[in-house]
Amino acid sequence: MHIPTYTYGQLPVQPWEYPSVVLFFILAFAIGLHLRRRHRHDPSWQFFIPGLFVKLGGGVFFGLIYTLYYSGGDTTSYFESALAFTNLLYESPLLFSEALVGGGTLEIKSLFDSSTGSPLGYMFFDPKARTVIKLLIPFVILGGKSYFLTTMWLSLATYSGLWRLYRVFVGHFPNLYKYLAFGILFMPSVAFWGSGILKDSFTLAATCYFIVATNNFVKNRGRNIWSVFVMILSGWIVISIKPYILLILLPGTLVWYFYQRIRNIRNAYFRYIIVPFIYAIVLVGSFILLTQLGSSLGRFAPNRALETAVIIQNDLKQEYYKGNSFDIGEFDATLSGIGSKFIPAVGAGLFRPFIWESKNIVMVLSGLENLFILIVTLIVVFTLKPRFIRKVIAEHPILLYSLLFTVLFAFMIGLTTSNFGALVRFKIPLVPLFMATLMVLYGHVDTERKNRKRFKPQT
Fold this sequence. Notes:
Oligomer: single chain
Structural class: mainly alpha
Distance between the termini: 71 Å
Order of helices and strands: EEHHHHHHHHHHHHHHHHHHHHHHH
């Protein structure tokens, strides 16, 4: 069987792939059952298998939608380009090594022939897309050159990052493991957009691992070498594919680290005196770090970020997006101009598309999820006192980090994205962190409601 696509024309699907997908689910269930039994004394592990099945199911559903409904797209282009590299590996390991370390030049592209297939030019010559292709090769090998099995292996890898993120939050809030499981493991947009063969799956996994490593780094007061290595590796993946994510991760990491150290200072007077100096160091240090990474950040480097925001936002308003877009209004490339769009940009990044703005089945699902997130947010905001919310966040640096990442990331994507199709993909790194923060706060709402019901006077 061959599925027509817009790229090579046909995506081969062999008969053995269908039972293999079923077998993959069975093996995943068996392994998950074994792991759950090993951790049977930890109630949070009851969500390992359901979360795993949601992630794998999201990957399969994504593949079916994009192969059968949309007739391919970037996902099939990534796969077939990585398939060409894999074929070259089997034919000539030496030529494969040259292609793997080589750049996006015509000379390197000429190493591929009709027997291996050739990577698509628009991806091969793009450094970020080429990084995704190279990272995809091990999954193509594990998947036996099957699109759907490759997708499932990639879904498994991204689930590993999400599960570790969940375990970090459970370590901080062990009594809220049910709420956190719902917010981190079962969000539809993360299961769908973060499981397929796209840039977003790699950046989601890398972001999760970066945050997990940051937590270990802070907990061990900077003395955990393995955490530093994971931060560097995951940071490299992020900066190689979507460098703007690093614009939020790095400052957030410094804030988390110094905030934790400041909380350990017992002398309150000294603590309040030193706070402004510490955060001045964070701001200056972040700017210096990001400036040094300027060549890697490209148009998102600090000296070009404002201009980039205006250019991207204006481009995404064009008619070729067929009306699947929104507009937060005009702004210029100045701090005051961009700052004036802070609230509408953050609102768009967190809650749009609204359900009435959804024009196809994928957007309808996103609209329903956003409606749910908005309702939970309103429940938390109007039930808990602002002073109590600030107190909870101040007592837990991981919540401060999550909220800082969420707001800044939502602001960035809301400011630079006017196309709903791009927005729902770009926002998935913030969804688990925002939902984790909401679920912790909602856990306090639910606890307070149950206590009132328990101690309600009998009449």
